């Protein structure tokens, strides 16, 4: 399962999430997130920045 970094620009909180969680939290379609990351390396909205995690997070 791929993981993504989601930064809330209001609080500067960083959360590691799945694509579906990122889409839900950022209120944007998952396909739009993937397209933006492929084209620009990150997906930016007014309130969030989303980027792919290169390595799975160690728990």
List the helices and strands and how they pair.
Blueprint: E1 4-8, E2 13-17, H1 19-26, H2 30-40, E3 43-44, E4 48-52
Antiparallel strand pairs: 1-2, 1-4, 3-4
Summary, kept brief:
With 59 residues, the chain is an alpha+beta fold. The chain is built from 2 helices and 4 strands. The relative contact order is 0.27.
What is the residue-mean pLDDT, rounded to a whole number? 92
The helix/strand order is: EEHHEE
Q: Count of helical segments? A: 2
Low-confidence segments? none
Main-sheet strand order equals 2-1-4-3
Structural class: alpha+beta
Radius of gyration: 10 Å
Q: Profile the largest sheet.
A: 4 strands, antiparallel
Coarse morphology: globular
Kindly estimate the percentage of residues that lie in beta strands according to DSSP: 25-35%
- Give the CA-CA distance, first to last residue: 15 Å
- Give the % helix: 25-40%
> Looking at the chains present, what oligomeric state does this protein adopt?
single chain
Write down how many β-strands occur, each being a DSSP E stretch of 2 or more residues: 4
Please tell me about this protein's structure.
With 59 residues, the chain is α+β, with helices and mostly antiparallel strands. It contains 2 helices and 4 strands; from the N terminus they run ββααββ. It has helices at 19-26, 30-40; strands spanning 4-8, 13-17, 43-44, 48-52. It has a 4-stranded antiparallel β-sheet. Strand 1 and strand 2 form a beta hairpin. The longest helix has 11 residues, at 30-40. It starts with a strand and ends in a 7-residue tail after the last strand.
